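Input record (one chain):
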Amino acid sequence: MSQRFADKFSELSLKHEGAFVPFVTLCDPDYETSLSILKTLVESGADALELGFPFSDPCADGPVIQKANKRALSSGARTADFFHLIGQIRQLYPTLPISILVYSNVVVARGIDKFYADAQAVGLDAVLIPDVPFNMLSTQDDFCACARRHEVNVVLICPPNASDHTIRSISGITQGYTYMLSRFGITGTDYSFGQPVEVIKKLKEYGAAPSLLGFGISTPEDAKIAMQTGVAGIIAGSACEKIIERQLENKTALLSELSAYVKAMKAATRLS
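The corresponding structure, as predicted from the sequence alone:
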C-alpha cells in the first residue's frame, strides 16, 4: 500500500508543521495550463495534492468547482487525459502524495478494477469517492477490494456530526488520510468553517488515518485557526479555483497569484 501520505505526515510532524493540500480540477481550463498549475502548486510549497476528476454532475461541489468541471470537460479532456496528467506529475515529483476526488459514475464507467489499476499505474496514492457512503464502500466488494488489489489507499469523508459508531467504522477503513468536513453543505459557499474538535479527537483515539480539514477554509487566518483543532493539515479548493477563474485570460498572472496563495497558506500551517 502506498506510504507517501504517511511519510509526509511524519516528516511534517518532526518540523512542527501541518500539511497544506490544495485542491484543483484536472485539465481546468485545459491540459497544458493544468500541468503548469500543478507544477506551480508543488514548487510553491504544497505538501500534497488533491485533484478533482471532472464530472458533469459534481454533487458535493458548489458553483466555483462546478464551473471548473465544465471548463475541463469543454476543453475535450477525458479520463485517459486525467490519468496521463497525473503520470506526468508523478514523474516530476516521485515522493509527492497525490490523491483524487472522483465521482462513482466515472469509476464505474471505466470499470472499477481498471480504474484502480490505472490509478496504480500512474502513481496515485489515494482515491476518495464522495458520493458512495462508507458502508457501501466497505460491504460492496468492488471498490475496496479493487483498491486493495492495486495498493491504492481508500480515503473516506467524516462528517462533523458523526456518531461514535460511524467514527469507529471510518477509522477502520480510511487510509492515507481522513477527509474531515468542517461543516455541512457543498464546497465554495460563503459559510464559515466549523471546528469539530471532539470528532477529530475520536478519530485519533480510534487510530484513523490523519485528518485533513476541508470545506470553508480559504485564507491564512482560516488555516491558523483550523490547525488549532488538532488536524494534520488542511485542504483548500474553491479558493484555488477562484484564482483560476479570475485569471483565465492571463496565464502569467494566474500562476503568480496561485504561487503567492500557496506560500501564504503553507506558512499558516507552521505551528508555533
